[in-house]
């Protein structure tokens, strides 16, 4: 029928149009539906991608936060190194300080003062040594600070939603939700228990480590920090999540460090280079007194006494003075003033007019260990059960062959009644190993090392030199005037004057020693050989050398009758290099001994004496040249006022410290147990009373007294003195006629240069993405 219709011409065109319109309509509807679906799919896909992008952005922001935590951890690690380094340096300073304090408390001077290998004498830090010895330790300090910071801060930083920003407001105004989905693996040391630590340490090895105290740590290795994060985001109802594991390594310690110093300059002055300085006397009147450093007491006889200087002993109380690592100088006596007193000098020289244990004392002793005794006059040993021991050299450098005064002739005088049976004297005359080096470090010995290093001057350094002879005092001459008879003995023992009271016997001797030629004169109350007849009948005085021979002849002629030779152990003199007269040692008499260099020795020793006594051992008066040393103005005495102006009085008394400058001779200053350190410079007297442990210096124009029960210790602490003087302008400016300028550190610390710690975080963080 349809065929008929198509063949029919009636309405066929209309039907055909409607047919095609139907087909087109159906096709359009289909295309429209497909396009709509496609558009919807594209929108959903875009939203899904946006959601994934926004979820990933959460992890990107977490990565940035991790970077910030790492950066902060590096800063903390560097600060840890900074802190620990400064603690270490402060501990080294403390160890030095405590070592000095312990040494000051050690009466036997057996404690060695600790000197840090990381600090120079001027107070600078030895960075090269520090980096060498403590490199691993600094790495561990950094790692400890860094890992602790990251372990403590990272989790909270990640979980803090405030750390995450809106990525794109045009897309979505929400934040990604970041969470931790697996247990965190923190930084943790993985080699804490090493095989070495599990082993029992070798005792000898442990001892060496303790003694050396330079043991670097083993570098501590850490397990990586691991954290797994989930970032979720819902956009247009499409939820997406992204997971990743962040693995954080421990950064290398790359920070450079620097030293920060406060450096000041201070001119040296001889007043603050000593423990004790006085223009008068030092009286040690009670208990034990220990001095570390130099002592200077010019000495003046006063209060009716004929003796000044350094006087030890009072009313038989058993007073002891010990001096360590310092020179002792006085123009008067070093004297044990009463029974049961003792003096010990260790590692330092003595310059004095007379070293004496006086008569009417018992149980006194003087010991000089590792040092040289230099006397302008005599060594006098007069007490009972008295002992003098010099483990070192002795120089009695005044030659008195042409003098009529015993003060101008150095000798050893012994009037003890029990020599050899209680009283003894021993001088080794030894060259002390390392002595040159040690003395060159002492104040006033700036020129010593050069002098003693000259092999031609070896004689100057050690041995026994006795420049003069003894005298018989309190005699009268033919005019009934006071007269001192010079003997021929450089070592004079009580009673041995008998040798000059007798005519010699040997008739075979010719000349001045023939019995018929000897003239014995009367010097009330004694008759003494004094002159001899020449061949023509002319009278000639015996010289010192003549009298020394006379003494020897007497011993031979009378077989030593009535001579006291001191016994084998009572009198021991070794390494005698020069003796103007005869000397006695180990129960034997030895003839005069002459040294070809003696004139030079006397000259040098006299210069030394004036240098220490007249000039307070001020290095400024010494000039060294190829021709030798030149002294300036040795004959002029240096006074305290030449070195200090006394323009401003100062009283600072706080925190166990006393800084006291006093320009009045009528004001006395007392130091007691409460005062631990200080600087005392006064025109008056100073009293150190009771138990005292004082560090610093004491300078007085008046006397210095040690009184009352309690051990007393004075320690010269140059580091404290430099620091204190440099910081107090009023005090510093009163010193004058200063010496060379010293540069030293008043404050030192170490810091970390942050610019040296830059690292790329991509090298520290590995990311493992997960689905």
TrEMBL record:
Which keywords has UniProt assigned to this entry? Coiled coil, Membrane, Transmembrane, Transmembrane helix
Q: Which stretches are transmembrane?
A: 12-34
Cross-referenced InterPro entries = DUF2572 (IPR022543)
> Coiled-coil annotation: which residues?
78-106
Query: Which Pfam families does the record cross-reference, listed alphabetically?
Result: DUF2572
Q: What is this protein called?
A: PilX N-terminal
